[in-house]
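Q: Could you write out the predicted structure for this multi-component system? I'm mainly interested in how the pieces pack against one another.
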Amino acid sequence: MTPAFAAQIPATIIGGYLGAGKTTLINRLLRQADGERIAVLVNDFGDIDIDADLIEARDEDLISIAGGCVCCSFGNDLLDALTRVIAMQPAPQRILIETSGVALPRAIARTLTLMRGVTTDAVIVVADAQSLRERAADRYVGDTVLSQLREADLVLLGKTDLAEPAAIAGLRTWLAEVAPQAVCIEMQHGRIERALLLADRVGFDRPAANRSLASPRPSALASAKGAISPASSHLATTLFASLSVRFAQPVRIDEITEVLTDPAMGVARAKGLLSATDGTRWLVQQVGRRVETRALDKPTENEPGRLVVIGVRAQLEVAALDARLARLGAMRG
Amino acid sequence: MPITIYEARSILTMNPSRPRATHVAVRDGTVLGTGTLDELGGWGAHTLDRRFADKVLMPGFVEGHSHIMEGTLWRFVYVGYHDRMDPNGKLWPGARSIEAVIERLQQQERLLTDPAQPLVGWGFDPIYFGSRRCTRQDLDRVSQTRPITIAHASLHILNVNSAALKLADWLRPGIEHPGILLGTDGLPTGELRGPEAMTPVANRTGFDRTIMAGDEQGLRAFAKLCVRKGVTTATDLASPLPESALPMMLSVTGDDQFPTRIVPLLRLLAHPVPDTIERSVKLQAASTDRLRLGRIKIVADGSIQGFSARLRAPGYYNGAANGLWYTAPEQIRQAYELALAAGLQIHTHTNGDEATEMALDCMEHALARHPARDHRFTLQHCQLADTAQYRRIRALGLCVNLFANHHFYWGDQHYATTVGPERAERMNACRTALTHGVPLAIHSDAPVTPLDPLFTAWCAVNRLTASGRTLGEHERIEPEQALHAITLGPAYTLKLDGEIGSIETGKRADFAVLEADPLQVDPRTLKDVPVWGVVQGGRVFEAATL
């Protein structure tokens, strides 16, 4: 990891229309913080209802949350709030930004580009499976709802357990049309695996890191779809799958990303350190279908490359991915 | 209690049963009556005050949509295109070129002794300068080291110098943001558009958001402007009304030399709606004669010239994408319902006709659940409403407060770019509102345009643009109607029409003291009627001696 990369605190933008379940999601992610220091930024404290049992203390513009997390309101000055949050001792390791119900989340992402030390990890748009289509057809807010979906890396569908499976399938087809850039993830009975939503510290450069995707849990190693190096916590084995590969030889970065962003592969996130055929070295990060590649200043490892891919268990085509990546030189492990 | 009888050249009472008088009797800040000296003598022992014997009295003007920030901004350097009077009565000539703007800033810069003190200008309006943009290099000529910021008249754009960009760490390559214009060198030009781009610099260069809320100095300056323009009651639409500011506002307005009744509306933000309703009920109980609390403002959409207003089909004339919702319809509907149930009043900013339609739908829904016979909810700006919408507005019992000044300042742009000729000609449709029996007020939205109700009335009467075009002959109204729309009209939208807005028995002794009769002058010169000062609650305030 280069110092420039290490210094960036990942920020996740959580958007979605009024009542979609943004606050519920944030409470869930705080409960799964597992020792990570998360700073939650909201327009206004009125926007969010942090579960009372999580709150340790609160004053006018800061709520202290169990486990070293905080919640701040940012009003009209997000950058000022970010500056304050980053200056905290110890600094947060992750930032969640909840947007207002009519906001367009990419506007927040644009603002983050103006700030050093913070980088947008993902735009997650939360949607209520039961009312989404109706909202998207609303004469007043329909275009706002559609714009939000089109700006998402990940669309998180809630309340799917209250709908018929056929209705969910129809919704997914519709989403693939209106927001083809987004990967759709369903919450199951309100459960969600944080590794799908938040960039965890993928294990290849820190094999021993806590909570990383390189969890040694045996149950995870031998899961149904053939995930090799998955991940973290308790729910992992049932909700998502992953694939971890190495490359002995330099690769063409565009060929790798073409595979990863193929909608048929069902990749929700990927992270790789890859050597290109021209001798340059790259950090590749993918969330949804959005890929960011960053040239690294200097080679940091001897091996040409590693790549970890994760997705929803029911959607990640591990075997097909494995086969296509193998043709590009990938080896398991 | 002593009685004073003021003699005037004429008193234009706005009371139709006694429209003109020569005398008005006042006791304890209240009008006993208007009439002849003989008629009023019946009230008993009195002093005859003849200082207005050559003046014309009108009811004190009511500005139904302004912001205290109009007072706050005057601590900065005015660099607008049009002449404008400051709270101390100094007329600042318009700066008619970028060169003139720079020169004025240079003059002011030389007066500063602290080298770190930022310099801020406001009111900048480069639409009059063709395609020439102001750059950081222009403002670097004012100072290389001191942060220089100028705010555009719309308050939605800033131009800053290199020193100001450095404070935000933005004078570097690699900035990519639609609100930050880049030059051919890949560095920001210093033009910052929209709050995301403006706020981080503004907060570091002396133009921060506390200004928006208003402070004691700003409130006092605002009140002076009110006196100079004949205003005795003015809204602050809207304020976050922080608890911490209330004691200041109560104490300043409670000062027996404070000349204005201030009506601050609490802005509905993202708080849960019931919290805002609850807070308003509490605020209402804290009201005093000169600080009227307990009303709520909601902002539904953005602005037309900023292309952030929500328009129905066929949308913007230049093809720009539709604007943004600032508040979700669900929240508006909930707020309307709760406010009707609690007997509170809501004023809703709707610029685009889609926002107006949405507000009407919300109102229809809310009224079905909480029928209220005299709610006087008001649509503020409501600039693009068509005739069918005025019929609905009437049916739902809403009032409108239209932005008459817009024609003069941006009418040419509306005609050419934003909404096109047809809708530009029916924007702020004062006549249509009156034809359909909709209670009408007109406003300045100061500081967006200057606080000056006679100018606003002139705009509604003549509908002239800055270039001289008559924009919508059909929507012009008569001078009497325009004067109503700056007195009783806005008083009605605030439910204060029983107290103010006309000069008649039992109402507050609030007068605008004029040097000429606004119904005797050529309507094309209505804006030029000089204002001597005001009488507010029976207290006399002369503009020249403020």
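A: Regarding packing and overall arrangement: Chain B has 19 helices and 24 strands.
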